[in-house]
Amino acid sequence: MAVAIHIFSVVWLLFLWSSMRYSVQMFQQNSYRVERYNRWLRATGEWLSRSNLLAVTSALVFIFTSHWAVLLIFGLWMVVISIAEFAIRYKIGLAYTMRVKRMICTRLLLTAVGVALVHIFAPRFTLVAMMLFVPDYWTIVANLINRPMERAITRWYYNDAKRILRSMPHLKVIGITGSFGKTSTKHFLYRVLSEKYNVVMTPGNFNTTLGVVRTIREHVKPHHEVFIVEMGAKQVGDIREICDLVEPHMGIVTSVGEMHLETFGSVESVARTKFELIEALPECGIGFVNIDSEAALAHLANVRRNVVSYGVDNKDADYRAVNIRYEATQTVFDVEHGNEADKGFVAHLLGRGNILNITAALAVADAMGIDSVRAHRAVRQIEQVEHRLSMRHQGGITILDDAYNSNPVGARMALEVLGDFITEGARYVITPGFVEMGAKQYANNRAFGRDIAQSRADRVYVVNEVNRQAIVEGLNDGGYPASQISCVASFAEAMSELQPRLKRGDVVLYENDLPDSFK
After folding, report:
1. Per the domain annotation, does 31 fall within a domain?
2. For residues 11 and 80, is the Cβ–Cβ distance under 8 A?
3. Residues 512, 496: Cα–Cα separation, whole Å
4. pTM value surpassing 0.90
5. Is 422 exposed, middle or buried (0-12, 13-18, 19+ CB in 10 A)?
6. Dihedral over Cα of 333, 231, 436, 468: its sign
């Protein structure tokens, strides 16, 4: 019996690690926010996951018996679940940051102390305690214990970043926010301003306060002249918090849309949050706002700062891209500003969305003294931003990769590109739809299905269950043939089904790709 318990303990450690790693990974994907993590647990049913059910079930059984046969049964069950967990390849793996390492250490310490105390005072229930320290709620407890320490560490990093910025009074800070388009605009602006200035920008998706703090401490150097800061927000006050840190001189609002409505509550609340950037500008600062976005245009009436507008469709824009022409390998367009027109910009990019974002960069560049020759050269050399309506070719197949897009406007633009693509092959769409849209999520995904039906897509792969019903109903509303709709559980399954169909000349659009926290 003693040998069985020792073997069971080793297996339990493996099981504890696999379940704890997944729990912490999902907590990280939910931005370390307990309310979001709890909402995710409820929405996905993870409270009743295999690991949690096994832990609770075995604990109840162990109260009455710990016979070696029972240990064997539950041990084998733990081995199977652990192997299955370690075999999964996640889209976004657990990033072992210092915060994650501290959280894991706290969880392990809690488990060790808890099991040891039970073993000392009630040894009969040791196995029960071991299993009850497995479920996800211990990640929340570990976060609660670590919170004072994490706040102190964050405050130290924040103050250090502030110190660095104060030592660089010459640094020009440009903030970029919006419901979508901010990352592409950041990259385009970086390329254009680099024609004249030494520029640094927040890398990747470092668009939270902590991401900006890390960028300042690791990447901003005394020789830099311009700092471009992407600013993300999931609740009111997020943009203001970043602005308090970097004190921007200019700001760009790329859009206001129905993103993160679960936390914002309304589009009006989204607009107020995005325009926190404009309100944070000094009196001599300049804001740049996309007035093709109706919600952004509506909110402009409340702004008391110097604002320059830009757009493609709105004829009242101060800077407007016009005469857009799609050629075989490039897009050609002009930019009107007042009574003048700067003609013949050439970009190796796809879609009106990218041209709109380039127009924002050109408006800022003009205010920063970039002449037309340099602007034209920069636009011509702009490279595609990965996963944001970028194009690549694989064995004669064209991939339109819009995997990081997750909004109705951008998706509609991507479908326009797919429909306008000159090809004799078939057109395919692979998508899970949009998320974090609150009460409007169903309606927006149903409308998305109707948009796909009106496009020239020959087959649609609806990925995951989260928006399946809405998208399929939208496809049916648009009269799309049911025989050309495939509902699959994952992106990998979609590609497995699509692969035998593909032939040279075909075009595949990846429209959004949800992280592992959505199923």
Report:
1. yes
2. no
3. 18
4. no
5. exposed
6. positive
The overall average pLDDT reported for the chain is 91
**Full residue range of the structural domain in which residue 202 is found:** 168-381
Is 155 part of any domain? no
157, part of any domain: no
C-alpha 354: how far from chain center: 18
Residues 198 and 320 in one domain: yes
Mean pLDDT, range 265-286, rounded to an integer: 93
SS3 14: helix
Angle between helical axes of 182-193 and 372-381 (0-180°, round to 10)? 130
Q: What's the pLDDT tens digit per position in 130-145?
A: 999 999 899 999 999 9
Residue 517 has pLDDT above 90, yes or no: no
SS3 176: strand
Total domains in the chain come to 3
User: Does residue 148 have a pLDDT over 60?
Assistant: yes
What is the spatial order of strands in the sheet that 427-431 belongs to? 390-394, 397-402, 507-511, 427-431, 459-463, 485-488
355 and 471 co-located in one domain: no
Does residue 517 fall inside a structural domain? no
CATH number at residue 446: 3.90.190.20
Among 232, 235, 234, 254, residue whose Cα is nearest residue 243: 232
Residue 162 or residue 69, greater confidence: 162
Tokens of 151: 């706040």
Last residue of a domain, one of 113, 148, 183: 148
At 510 the three-state DSSP class reads strand
Q: What is the pLDDT of residue 518?
A: 60
CATH of residue 202's domain is: 3.40.1190.10
Whole-angstrom distance, CA of residue 474 vs CA of residue 401: 23
Collapsing DSSP to helix, strand or coil, 507 comes out as strand
